[in-house]
Amino acid sequence: MPETCVDAKFTLLLSTTTSIGKVRGFSILILHVLRGRLMLASEIADLLDKKNGYVWTYLIRLRRYGLLERKGQFWTLTSLGASLIDRVKKIKELKRKRRLMKTAYIPTEKQQKKNRKTTGHLQKINTSESKKKEKLSIELWLKNSDGNYQHAEKKVVEYLLSHYNQTGSKFIYLEDVYALAEKINREPKTVRDAIRNLKQDKIVYIWRDKSLSCWKIGLYKSFIEKLKILLDEEKSNLIKQKRRKTTD
Question: Which sign, positive or negative, has the C-alpha torsion 125, 137, 205, 171?
């Protein structure tokens, strides 16, 4: 069978002095997290309970090895990175089967601790994926809000929520308020006033990112968490209603 381009790259990587031997532990966990998805460095750090600087060190190193690439602000696997994860998975499975064939596997206390730690990480990843699939709607906010919000304010929140539902990111980067005004088809002054009012209510924040020469506009984490709680309550109430109908 002819060797594919990815296989050729993989063989080349194995033959280098840096080699795949350095890609292990936390590096493999990062590759697993990024499998089939785009994520911000801050999201990876949050997901794996590590500081941003610590995660960045690994991301840069993995990109240097050709296993990761950046698409705008997001990180993702290269074809080589995806190939590596598949191979690591297959090798682990083969080793596991070989151990089972030789003798019944009885994990040591150290191994049990390691397994629990790995399982905890994977459970957190799966929980995060499940939550991201649940769409947060603007209606959920408006139904449970005490404020009488203007149309422009609703459009700003709706746009940011849509971005969050699609990417899992709570914020966007824009050149200025004019860019946001154009996206939601509102007057710049109206959008500026809307952001100010939403900021007062701790729904939307905005600040100048000098390193990127642009504005960062996003939804407060507390606002997102509140919507998730409301969504869970709404689902719970629906289940209770169905149960009542069944018993009736």
Answer: positive
